[in-house]
Amino acid sequence: MMNGLRMALLAGLYLAAATGVPASDTEPATCATTRPSTDTAATDAATETAESDATSRPTTRAATQPTSRPTTRPTSRPAPAAIAILQALERAGKEHTAIRAEVFYRVTNLTMGDTETRTGWVAYRRAVEDDDERRPTQFRVHFDTVQLDAGPKTERQVDFAFDGRRLSIARHRIEQMTRYRLGQAGRQPMTLGKGPFPLPFGQRVEDMLKHFNVTTRPARGRLSHTKYLKLIPREEHKQQLNVASVEMWVDAETFLPVKIDTADKKNNHTLVVFRKVQTDADLSDELFTLPTPAGWRETVEQLPAAERIAP
To answer: CA within 20 to 30 Å of 67's CA: 78, 226, 286, 292, which one?
Structure first.
């Protein structure tokens, strides 16, 4: 496992356009679909082209008279178009109680030039509280293959599971089970920018606006069928979040996330693409629990406050 990536990731599935983030609308094309799942052609993520979107600002003329008017606009409230996308994203998360999808996951360390690519599947089940049923938000991420840089793709199973109370990680190759305590009362590893894995499902508008400055622009290229969001941590929350920026592409019809690209504080870029998205999937309780197999080592640790956890 690469030293530069060891603490790069993992969180918190429904669920950015500023200068310098290497992400492109032309890279893996996917389409989230509800109910009958449909596969869509996706180009290899390694072929994505770097793209920088400069924020458009009006040019200012030299003042001929002293003025106390501020020269920059405050960014406390995003544009109505960005808010509308966030609201649709939250509604989609509430509409679908369970989601399952194939997942493509790549982490690139720009300092070292290392790349780690994994494939597998992800399952998400939102919290339910009514007279007939009560259960917390749960998720499971299963990786079955890994590829380091341009090397061969090999089988290597790693599982992440959050059962509503604790986060468990099973690393099958070394027979290691790690249980993480949440620490803070009510802390949810699903929250974008706070969890161990960039899982964008079930995000709330209130949380997104509280922690991020949010912008949008038209999606381009192979992802022109999506809605685009860029999230930059607000100054007062930078220390609490494990990301420096988040870009998200949401299907324009279902408003389910199809791609998310994040940059963290250690110069790691994480690309996650969701394919063959199935909504209202039949997910058992056992799917979100990871018993420790006989002979494995088990440890219990505190969930890092502002760190991701590498597979």
So the answer is: 78
Cβ neighbours for 185, distance < 8 A, ≥ 6 positions apart:
none
- What the block records as the tokens of 21 is 């983030």
What is the pTM assigned to this prediction? 0.73
| pLDDT above 90 for 149 | yes
Query: 7-35+77-302: which CATH topology?
Result: outer membrane lipoprotein receptor (LolB), chain A (2.50.20)
- Most confidently modeled range among 39-43, 188-192, 207-211: 207-211
**Domain residue ranges of the chain, discontinuous segments joined by +:** 7-35+77-302
Q: What angle do CA 158, 266, 242 make, to 5 degrees?
A: 70
- Pick from 52-66, 90-104, 225-239: least confident: 52-66
Helix (H, G, I), strand (E, B) or coil at 227: strand
Task: Of 14, 57, 9, 52, give the one whose Cα is nearest residue 227.
Answer: 14
